[in-house]
Amino acid sequence: MAPTPLAPETQAVIAAEAGGDGSGDGDAVAAAEATSAAPVALAAPDFTALDLPAQAQYLVQELRGPNAQRNRKATLDLVRQYEANVGQARAAARQKFGEGGAEADAFAFQQPEGQPELNKALQEFREGRAKTAKVEDASRADNLAKKQQLLDQLRQLVEAAETKDSSAKLKALQSEWKATGPVPQTDSQPVWDTYHGLLDIYYSKQGRFLEMKDLDRRRNQEAKENLIKRAEGLMALTGINKALDELTKLHEDWKNIGPVPNDQREPLWQRFIAASDALHQRRKEFSDERSGQEKANLAVKKALLERILPFAEFETDRVNLWRSKTDELQELKAEWDAAGLVPRAQADALNKQYWAAYKAFFNRKNDFFKSLDNEKSANVKAKQALIDQAEEAQNNPDAEAARAVVMRIQKEWKDVGRVPDKLADKLWHRFRNACDAVFDRPKHEAKQREEKATASSGEQLAYLEQLGTQISALGDENPASLEGFRAILADWSQAFDGVGTGDRSEEQLLGLLGQYLDGLPDLSYTDRADLLFQAEVARLKARPQAQQQLTRKEMALRKEINELENDHATLQTNLAFFARSKNAAQLREEYEGRMAEGQKRIDVLKKQLKVVRA
I need a labelling partner for 359 at 20 to 30 A (CA). Which of 389, 428, 517, 596 fits? Predict the structure, then answer.
């Protein structure tokens, strides 16, 4: 039911209350709320003074702290700075490694201590942020549904005849409305308009609109004055984030209180917004302080850059001078790293100039040292000797021994230094081809077995069809027996184990064996399952790469056992909570039944695991 159009005098009262345009103070509150929800800069220690492990530890604490989501921008800025520091450390380590003349492919960078825990904390932080947003959206949707139900109740009250308890019902409904939290932003104004429109209709219908409005406004004035006192008290809180969170809640409460007497509307709002502005000023002062520090850092880095840029053009034919200049540049780099963050607008351009000069110096240095190839001829002989060993391993009939030799000489290959560029590819291709031939031998052997199994697949199919016919003919005159079951397995093994069998053939065989056991009237379900599982394991052991097949089977059994045991532990834990439930006995019986069934399955799986490992 749509609200009944208001009388002119009622519209005039509402317009005067809302500030003359009927919009109320909702826009001002929403603006203040948006301001209070802005991210707050993180009060970090001297982050640049920490080493990489300490920086990782600090970031883990911030990411897992109570205000992590509130401070996410500042925290993620520090994470990017940390990642840049790790990148610089990696580059420096790679450069130092290359200066020793070692092969670049052999370089390995050790992650800083605390890096895995930081990665984990970042993942938890992102998941927590997504979960919080989802919970907030769900809460606002629930609040919308509840307020829509309250609107339906209010419509019924408006349309119903006056009774002695109508006023009490209205007050209870208003209290429940005010106690309900915020709704989605797109629905906030329509729901608010509908609610107050229905209230106006109710008051007009009862002939007491102005009297009730005046009383309601005085109560609203008291409520808003209380909110103002709480807002003004937030300046005494030491934590700016906690104070801003509380201010956001106060703004939400302010929107739901409703209008006050016209002569008090603007003074009350100005007091409330003044308390809000004072709190936001605290945040601005903090942000300004950090901005000033970044500008100071920018001046330091610009001065350092003037000293670093000449290194890009440095040239000499003296080894000692190259080394001394390297030390000098590394000292400047340490000062650069310690200078801290600069304003984002200048950071990229500044870093590009810095890294261009830094890399240009080391490129020139590398070119110089590449000319010193006195050891390259010895390296050619060393690599040729390793190639000879790899090619000899190709002819070794013992595949495992050949593989061990190749793995050993691959490690030795990495330790051999550079060779002339014109020989590097040729030597590497010979070495790699010899190694690949050793490692690919199992694949060739498997392919041969597969081809042999394919050749015998026709015979296997005919055998399985004949076995299916025999099983179909079982009856009282031709009964099944355990001896017959074992004979089938023996015949299959004798006929095809030498040539190999495919997965499909093995699956069909096990299926027919199950049908055969169905013909044994005195065989229990458990015994039937044990016989089939023993047959399956026997077939796995008889096939090529049996150890791999058995390992996969064992892993599958262990995984299922572990899952069942975890479920059993969860059910056991949940039993402790059922004492407070009205259906405790029924739930306990159900869970205990599930636990018993799970335990039976665990016992069966453990028995099968023993068979696999036997």
Answer: 428
